[in-house]
Amino acid sequence: MDSNETTTVDIIAEDNFTTAGDECTNELPTVQEYLDGLTLPIAFIIAATVLLSIGTFSIFFNNAYHILHRAPKQFKTKSILLLTIYPLVTLFGVVSISVPRAYFLCDTVMHVYFMICAYIFFSLCMQYVDGEDALIKSTDSQTFSLRTPPLCCIMPLFKRTSVTKNRLRFVRMLIMQLPVVQTALFLALNVVFVEDYPNFNRIILYFVPLIVISILLGVWGLNILVRMIAPLYSDLKLMGKYFVLQTVLILCRIQPLVIAAIVSSSITDCAFPNTLQVQKNAIFQLCLCFEMMVLSCWASLLYKTPSNIGTG
Q1: Is 97 helix (H, G, I), strand (E, B) or coil?
Q2: What is the rounded end-to-end Cα distance, in angstroms, of the chain?
Q3: Where do transmembrane segments lie in this chain (predicted)?
Q4: Are 178 and 115 in contact (CB under 8 A)?
């Protein structure tokens, strides 16, 4: 290639760079492009998320140490798996900011692990009460209720009834479908993200109803479970443990919409490689890492002290 051709290529590349910045392109930069155009605010956010992630991991290891040494043996593994969600979210938050093209993969890992934790939480609750048979024996005739959020509004005619094997199986299936359905949907979305990124934001709209319906059913099952057991075993602190777990889902799924709206309306400079998507993701991950550290501290108060399992 001679000097004229080289100059022409450089001019075209510069024009494309300017045009992409003026039109606020949706293209995600490579790691090299991202580092070459790294700004001070983004660098500060990366450093802050790394520090928050280290703090969250420190809290997790401290919690795990206490659980391993103080919790009853049958609860140790599941309790630690549930607490792992907080450092895992911060870890992939750092990766998501550092590698812009990996943001949806990181989001998928966070999302799927939460769905797995939902079923782990169900299993832990059953261990807390010594299994389904013991729970049925310890409950009264007015314990099981379908009128719980988020579907309580469409279940006004259902009355409180007794706990049976079939009803517990129904709750189990509501929760079990979460990791299965959500994993399948997000794997399909990752294929779309890789193969057809320019149309990804349009195609994902067809998946949203399925994702939302599955989540609503799963959360409904978890609410039925917790509201059924918590009043009978108050020493288990189930409502608090459920809240610190459910908050992860709320923050990961609803908070990005709020941040996207704020960033889109307040930021005008989105020149490549610091595109609007990169800036929205960076601010979201910073907020999320801080929130995970707070939730991890709260969870340590709930899981650190071993529960005294009663007989109801």
Answers
A1: helix
A2: 82
A3: 38-60, 80-104, 110-129, 170-191, 203-230, 242-263, 283-303
A4: yes
